[in-house]
Design goal:
Mean pLDDT of chain B: 93
Strand content of chain B: over 45%
Structural class of chain A: mainly beta
Helix content of chain B: under 10%
Oligomer: heterodimer
Number of strands of chain A: 11
Distance between the termini of chain B: 37 Å
Largest sheet of chain A: 6 strands, mixed
Largest sheet of chain B: 7 strands, mixed
Largest interface: A-B, 25 and 27 residues
């Protein structure tokens, strides 16, 4: 069974204080690992897809990295508008199109 | 480019009733998948449709069903509603091949009383 564990569950940072969110996963063959951002009352907003170990992707203050067992979402010099729940999900490489298995998310608060 | 649209946005039903939710994918996206999000369980995969065929299904009871139309729009139906079905139901669309990215709609908030 595919599993995704995110840590920490919640994180409070000061504006400008960089940190990393962790996503540990077990999957029988990884097709893709996805990072999403979700604001209260809204659907998840796509951030990144990572397909193979060693891959990195960046977008503004966010950088996602991938190893064979985990992914990190690095947030550099965050701003209050980066406050949200960050979700990690994996898609297994099986015949046909499987759905995503999500972690419970990291609730991030950036204080001004 | 219009995003994924879901209707209705909010719904209140009573136990035992049934409900139908609708999802219109991004133009050109032919795969539509559905998820249930609750505070306790997080986001859980319900099922995925491509070319009007269900390709995969999550671990939900048979009360949860869906379908896809020739224009790629999808509906999901929940029969005999239970209190535990109260949740945010999210639809995601993607291009036909696996690997995403999956673009989510705003969701339908269902409250079962």
């Amino acid at each position: 069974e595919d599993q995704v564990t995110q840590s920490p569950e919640a994180l409070r940072l000061q504006e400008g204080e960089s940190s990393s969110l962790n996503c540990s996963y077990t999957v029988s063959g990884l097709r893709g690992l996805f990072w999403y951002r979700q604001d209260p009352g809204k659907g998840p907003e796509f951030l990144f897809t990572l397909y193979s170990a060693g891959e990195e992707k960046e977008k503004e203050r966010l950088k996602a990295t991938l190893t064979k067992k985990e992914s990190f979402l690095h947030i550099t010099a965050p701003k209050p508008e980066d406050s949200a729940t960050y979700l990690c999900a994996v898609q297994a490489e099986r015949g046909g199109a499987d759905g995503l298995t999500f972690g419970k998310g990291t609730h991030l608060i950036i204080q001004p | 480019k219009a995003g994924v649209t879901q209707t209705p946005r909010y719904l209140i039903k009573t136990r035992g009733q049934q409900v139908t939710l609708s999802c219109s994918p991004i133009s050109g996206h032919r795969s539509v998948s559905w998820y249930q999000q609750t505070p306790g369980q997080g986001l859980q995969f319900l099922f995925e449709y491509f070319s009007e065929t269900q390709r995969n299904k999550g671990n939900f009871p048979g009360r949860f069903s869906g379908r896809q139309f020739s224009n790629s729009r999808s509906e999901m139906n929940v029969s005999t509603l239970e209190l535990g079905d109260s949740a945010l139901y999210l639809c995601a669309s993607s291009l036909p091949w696996a690997g995403g990215p999956f673009v989510f709609g705003p969701g339908t908030r269902l409250l079962v009383l």
